[in-house]
Design brief:
- This protein is mostly helical.
- About 80% of the residues lie in helices and about 0% in strands.
- The protein has 13 helices and two strands.
- The chain has a two-stranded parallel sheet.
- Helix 6 (about 85-125) packs antiparallel against helix 10 (about 225-255).
- The radius of gyration is 28 Å and the shape is extended.
């Protein structure tokens, strides 16, 4: 039943929420549920019953044509990007690899100084303690530092370029009803894993300073293992945050949820342009009063005031777009 309801919701997601449309949506949902119950009573399995109901459902284009609806303005059409089921799967595969690469790159950047310290500590275990030997060890320890950073930068560049090829930034993704229902089901199945990953990441970040303190207590203050343990725990925790965060935002992007709701995407196009003008201007005003009137300690108030006003304007503009889309 939930699958059918999600299907109907996805069909009407971009239609105006008039009383006529709401009644039509309610009637369709009732008819589809009745058909589902009938098929179940005939001995059909749940998957067979749902598949039959969805296949018999009319095309959304027929509804739009029948009621002579113009659901999108010209501005909306410029923001909309329809994706097929195959394109959605391709994008999800890319984003999984993208999330893994970015998360790995961030973790490597965190681990880079830890590897430098680890290299030095291992060298000390082999009694390289003479001044000349230690000078060489300190010099060679820079190699793993830059090696890890080089790999991370390479991952950022390669997968960043691949991300640009999809050109979905600032766009509203439109899905056909079956694809929307399928993706919504996958998203609901993903949420428990996301919650566990975030909880694990938080636990690791809490354990990081604990490991630091334990290493100091057990090994003394003058040791690098405390920092190595700290950075190791943080790197794994941040990896979980980034990887699962990318996947979560991908589902929201494709399903037009959260920060990817149509009104937010459309409003973002204007607010980004305004922000590119307003905030440099505010900085210039701050510098002007600072240099001319030596008001460095008081003129900073212009930044939080501008931020509050800009947030209020953005919220109001989004509300207006949302109301416009409902009409």
């Amino acid at each position: 039943m939930d699958t059918i309801k999600n299907y109907v919701d996805s069909v009407f997601i971009n239609l105006p929420r008039t009383s006529e449309m709401l009644q039509l949506k309610e009637d369709m949902l009732t008819n589809m549920e009745d058909k589902y119950l009938q098929l179940k009573s005939e001995g059909k399995s749940e998957n067979e019953a749902i598949g039959t109901v969805l296949s018999e459902f009319g095309n959304i284009d027929e509804i739009i044509e029948e009621y002579n609806l113009d659901i999108d303005s010209e501005e909306d059409n410029e923001q909309n990007v329809p994706l097929s089921e195959a394109e959605v799967e391709d994008f999800m595969q890319h984003r999984t690899k993208f999330g893994m690469a970015i998360a790995t790159g961030v973790a490597l950047c965190i681990l880079a100084p830890a590897m430098m310290l680890l290299f030095r500590e291992v060298a000390l275990l082999f009694s390289f303690t003479s001044p000349v030997a230690m000078e060489r060890v300190d010099l060679l320890s820079i190699i793993p530092l830059f090696f890890f950073i080089a790999i991370a930068v390479g991952l950022f560049i390669i997968f960043g370029l691949k991300e640009e090829q999809y050109n979905l930034d600032g766009k509203v993704v439109l899905l056909d009803a079956p694809t929307h229902v399928k993706l919504d089901h996958e998203f609901n199945e993903f949420k428990p894993s996301f919650a566990k990953a975030i909880a694990s990441g938080v636990i690791l970040c809490i354990l990081a300073p604990i490991s630091l303190l334990l290493a100091i207590v057990l090994l003394g203050e003058d040791n690098a293992w405390s920092v190595i343990f700290l950075l190791g725990f943080v790197a794994v925790g941040v990896f979980l945050f980034v990887f699962y965060g990318v996947l979560y935002s991908t589902y929201e992007k494709l399903l037009s949820l959260g920060d990817y709701r149509p009104e937010k995407v459309i409003a973002g196009k204007l607010t980004d342009k305004i922000a590119g003008f307003v905030f440099p201007l505010v900085t210039a005003v701050y510098l002007f009063f600072g240099f001319l009137y030596d008001a460095w300690g008081t003129a900073w108030i212009i930044f939080p005031i501008t931020g509050i006003l800009f947030a209020a304007f953005s919220s109001l503009y989004q509300s207006q777009i949302k109301m416009k889309r409902k009409k």
